[in-house]
Each structure stands twice: as C-alpha cells, then as structure tokens.
Write a structure and sequence with these properties.
Blueprint: E1 2-4, E2 10-17, E3 25-27, E4 30-37, E5 40-44, E6 47-51, E7 56-59, E8 64-68, E9 73-80, H1 82-86, H2 91-100, H3 112-131, H4 138-167, H5 170-181, H6 191-197, H7 202-213, H8 217-235, H9 240-246, H10 252-263, H11 267-277
Parallel strand pairs: 1-3
Antiparallel strand pairs: 2-9, 3-8, 4-7, 4-9, 5-6, 5-8
Helix pairs in contact: 2-4, 3-4, 6-7
Amino acid sequence: MVKKNLYKPIEVEYKLVEECPLTKSNYTFFQILYVISGEGFAIINDHKTTYRPGNLLLFVPNDHHTLDVPKPSEFLLIKFNRNYLNTTKTPENINSLIHYAPDLQGCILQNEDDKLMVKNICSLIVSELKNGTYNHNEPIVMHFLNALIFITTRSIITNQHVLLTQNSEVRIQKIISYVQKHIHFPQKIKAEIISEKFGLSKNYLSHYFKNQTGETISRFIMQHRLKLIEHRLIFSDIRVNEIVDEFGFADESHLNKFFKKYKGVSLTEFRKKQNKLA
C-alpha cells in the first residue's frame, strides 16, 4: 500500500491516461476527480463502481482507491487538504463533507443543473491548464475551484437529505442539520435543548430519532464529534488544548477520557500511531 501526501493546500492536474498507472494507494487529502472522456472503473475501499464522461467522484482521506482504465481516459483532478477547506469559511459544510463523504459510492452529481455547471467549470479549468495560462489567471481559476468544491459539498448534503426523505420526515432532517451546525457547542446539543427546540419530549426524541435513523441521537452526536476529532488529529497540527476549546470540553482530561472510551487510546497515542503509518 502506497501512502501519498499533499504538500500544498491545493493542486490541480489534467491527465490523459492510456492505462491505469496507479497501484492501490492511501491518500491523506481530499480529491475530486472529474471524468472528461473515457469509461472504466474506480475501486474505492474494495467497492468497484463505473465511471463515464461527466461523472464527478470524491476520494476522502484514508480512502484506498485505484482506477481500472480499459481505454484512454481524460481526467481533471483537484487535490486539496483541510487547510484549504478552512479558508472557505464554511465549517458546517466541511463537517458534512467529513461525516458523509466516506459513505458515498460513484458519481455524486444527481442534479442536471449541477452536472452542466460542473462541466462548464471543469472545461474552463482544463482550458487554462492546456493553454499554459493557469498561473497568469490563478485568481480567476481559484474562484472556479472554490465553486467546484462548493457544488461537491452541496451535492453530498443534498444526496443525504434525499436518502433521509425516502425514509423519514422533514423534522429529522432539521434535527440532524441542527446537530451538525452546533456540534462545537455541547450545551446546544443536549437532548433537553433539542427536544424543546423541535417540540418533542426528551424521551420521545430518543425513540423518534432511533426510529427514523436506526441509531440513538446520543450515539449520532458521539460518532460525529469523534469523527471530527479524529480528522483534526490526523490531518492537522492543531494542539490538543485547541481541540478542547473547539469542541467545548472542560479540559484535556475530559477530552482524553471521552476519546479513550471509544478509541482505546489517548489522543497523543492515536496521533503518534497515525504519524507512523504516514
């Protein structure tokens, strides 16, 4: 298994691939792959999915993926890390990207308007790369890239809401969105606060949430916080005391107790282990 890192906040590549040059690799950054031409397969965490022109695929940190390219294919590849995401100033969207993206398979674009918009944006970026004007027009290209990342994130959130709508009410979507938005404020995501906000009794909230999503609201909150904390430890240099402040823990001891309860190791041990794997 090849471990690959990104040493810039964002990189953009146009690739014409005759055959798959990649071994199965593990990446420490996000990647958006837009298919310009060609057909083949993307293998993501042992799940095989087809790709075709107009598809937009997202690979997230720690995904194991490779491409099976049976015939020449053109790709636009955008690589970016959390530091770049932080510059977008949309933390709730970043959290949604981290939380939901690992469960995605295949093309994330479902809306025809989004497909056309992404096609036009990618065509403009490829044109800049091919014409050698990328560096000269970099500020303009960065606007295109930000738009592409925004559409990607929005599509992920929309897809999740569609899945929820198939099996649940609008209210459960609003509860989940509320939790994600306020995940850094423990006082705002207590069961009694959520139940009061959405007009439910505390006991019924737990039953209702589990009935609609398959897990209790306390477990959903725990898993979401844990996933975000793991991401901070693996993909940033943020100090433990900063994580304490960000997620509203009383002190480092309380944070370590929470983390060790579910991961079996302290935050420092977890980060050291991940650094050795990199």
